[in-house]
């Protein structure tokens, strides 16, 4: 009989039937909201905690601490609870209430930093706590276990489920763990596969998608592993998230809307192909926001 951790990964790949434009291009959605914690971050969280335990980095008296915009915090809180590890999650104060309550339900302590400081402020707070002692920061932005989990699971699943016919992979870029790991695996199978990252356009705020200042650029990010970057406007990501819910019955967040928007834009530029887009999480994470107003 399976335990919760056995349910991490092996998420469905479903074809979009209604929002697509080029009928010679198939666009598939990788449904990461089907992970037990509700997002793609379950994979990274499991990989990072498992790796730290195996290396003996989590010892008695040490607490985990992590800065996150939400999904990683939920995943870490869920998996830390299974291993009996204390964890403190640091987020900007504009995080949705659903996320805070979910983390607390799993037993995590939640610290909210000023929203004006964005994720950089949450990262700075977590780093200060680690420097003071008694904390271990798994650091999803710099931790190789993040991308390694996607290399070991997400990439092979996509390759298998498309029968090796995938031509383009599209993913939002936040910590960049998903796109780094999947890129490494898919390029090994077929170097011609195009890896496309999504970033917010100037002035756009899309939870889960970032354009990092150089000083905060994730260390796991390798620019050469991405063939192209597509900028997405917040309005377009919002509209596509709503369309996915109403037309495809895919209830997801704004970053997923951004990913699919980029995939559809890409499909208009090619004659034929198979595009896979990451659906990062579920829409119920955003019900207290104005996303679905």
Automatic annotation (TrEMBL):
It comes from Limnovirga soli. Keywords: Amino-acid biosynthesis, Cysteine biosynthesis, Pyridoxal phosphate, Transferase. It catalyses: O-acetyl-L-serine + hydrogen sulfide = L-cysteine + acetate. Pfam families: PALP. The modification N6-(pyridoxal phosphate)lysine is found at residue 41. InterPro entries: Cys_synth, Cys_Synth/Cystath_Beta-Synth, CysM, P-phosphate_BS, TrpB-like_PALP, TrpB-like_PALP_sf. Its EC number is 2.5.1.47. It is an enzyme of class 2 (transferase). The lineage of its organism: Bacteria, Pseudomonadati, Bacteroidota, Chitinophagia, Chitinophagales. Belongs to the cysteine synthase/cystathionine beta-synthase family. The keyword Amino-acid biosynthesis applies. Residues 5-281 form the Tryptophan synthase beta chain-like PALP domain. The gene is cysM. CDD domains: CBS_like. This is Cysteine synthase. Pyridoxal 5'-phosphate binds at residues 71, 174-178, 255. SUPFAM superfamilies: Tryptophan synthase beta subunit-like PLP-dependent enzymes. One of its GO terms (molecular function) is cysteine synthase activity. Its cofactor is pyridoxal 5'-phosphate. One of its GO terms (biological process) is cysteine biosynthetic process from serine. Pathway: Amino-acid biosynthesis; L-cysteine biosynthesis; L-cysteine from L-serine: step 2/2.
